[in-house]
Amino acid sequence: MQKQIKSALISVFYKDNLENIxxxxxQQGVTIYSTGGTQKFIEDLGVKCVAVEDLTAYPSILxxxxxxxxxxxxxxxxxxxxxxxxxxxxxxxxxxxxxxxIVDLYPFEETVKSTTxxxxxxxxxxxxxxxxxRAAGKNYKDVVIVASKDQYGSLEQxxxxxxxxxxxxxxxxxxxxxxxxxxxxxxxxxxxxxxNEEEKDYFxxxxxxxxxxxxxxxxxQKGVFFGNLSELFDKLHGKELSYNNLVDVxxxxxxxxxxxxxxxxxxxxxxxxxxxxRANLSEAWEAALAGDKESAFxxxxxxxxxxxxxxxxxxxxxxxxxxxxxGFEPAALEILQAKKNRxxxxxxxxxxxxxxxxxxxxxxxxxxxxxxxxxxxNDTGAQPATDAQRADLEFANIVCxxxxxxxxxxxxxxxxxxxxxxxxxxxxxxxHAIEKAKQFNFSLEGAAMxxxxxxxxxxxxxxxxAEGINAVIQPGGSIRDADSIxxxxxxxxxxxxxxxxxxxx
Length: 505
Known about the structure:
Elements: E1 3-4, E2 7-11, H1 19-27, E3 31-34, H2 36-44, E4 50-51, H3 52-56, H4 71-78, H5 84-92, E5 100-103, H6 108-114, H7 118-122, H8 128-138, E6 144-146, H9 152-162, E7 165-166, H10 168-193, E8 211-212, E9 224-225, E10 233-237, H11 243-256, E11 263-268, E12 271-277, H12 281-290, E13 299-303, H13 309-315, E14 320-325, H14 330-336, E15 343-347, E16 355-360, E17 363-368, E18 378-379, H15 387-401, E19 408-411, E20 416-420, H16 426-439, E21 448-451, H17 459-466, E22 471-474, H18 481-490, E23 494-497
Parallel strand pairs: 2-3, 2-5, 3-4, 5-6, 13-14, 14-15, 21-22, 22-23
Antiparallel strand pairs: 1-7, 8-9, 10-15, 11-12, 11-13, 16-17, 18-23, 19-20, 19-21
């Protein structure tokens, strides 16, 4: 079912790379209809063009809001070429067949990003363009529809190779892409209108231009990332980010966004295995690495200060996959680029997503991002926390928030010295954290402990006390909170109850 293109309607906002298409159509003797700026663009190329106003005998009205909304335009697009009655009506009303429609949409998303002035945004809600795209897509058996500048290259190839003729499969492909463009556009508009609504009736999310990963979580799985990484960082060096890389980078960036003082973190399989805050970046790195030198191998590193040459030299001594930083001194960059595949990411802005998504069963779970560290600061133990204890407890609580549940974080002098995560019981998480601390020769005397959820019994605080831990932070909420609180009071321990749980499954 090849169809020769004999007439075309072209009315676009973006004219980049359109020149070759217009010239090809002109050379093939195609009658071109157009409007406004697009008409001038075509005529400036020396290609003949018929004004849509001449076709409809109506001018563009309402400040350009109505240009193509007319039966002589839509009739020519929607008429079924194998339907005698349709063809009779085209002849009766002197409506020309239109075989090709090249129409894009007003830049709504770009306008939303550039202004908050409501009327300017509303004026970028396209009416005629969407209608033309839908009409041409619906009649794909007879009409070619190109709805985005991203499709100009494909159309040019078809015009050249087919000498102005298209196949049914080609027209179907262009129609599918066109409806995809409309769906994304409508989703963007709906999201803007509903931006202040707490509850929405539909789950709507449309992200264009997926980036194919080398593979998914495992080599036998396909993986695609939908998003704009360039908004968050510039990749300065290294191989392409894989599916697992992106998951770990997300975890690292969410964690490091919690800290303002100089902090370095090491992430492995989305869990932090080393993190510390210090007076300078080099010291923060050394302390973070000391937390678990084994797990740091092949990890993802993140910091919140510019990487200097001394720190880079120290980092360069171990194997790691990725380093994320807000800046790199030239000398540091030279050192770190010595290894070909190592990925260096220059972070442009903090990662603070408003929502979290997870696919479960045959649907999607959506929740607010886990903002904040504690709701209350209730000293319920033997005495209030000292300034030093409070600093460690706050640090531990943030780290614990970013570990998989059940989770325990042990901290001393704003350094993670032991952690247990992803355990089926809280007491197992604590045992694992203690074992990790002892593995790397950390003394737990005077350390702080954080738990992502309440203690159902007093066993954890008893074990903590026996190891020398003297300060604990936990959300509370158990019917047996008193057991842990009373033990803390009786044994000279600090116990902070926050009223904010941090499960992470």
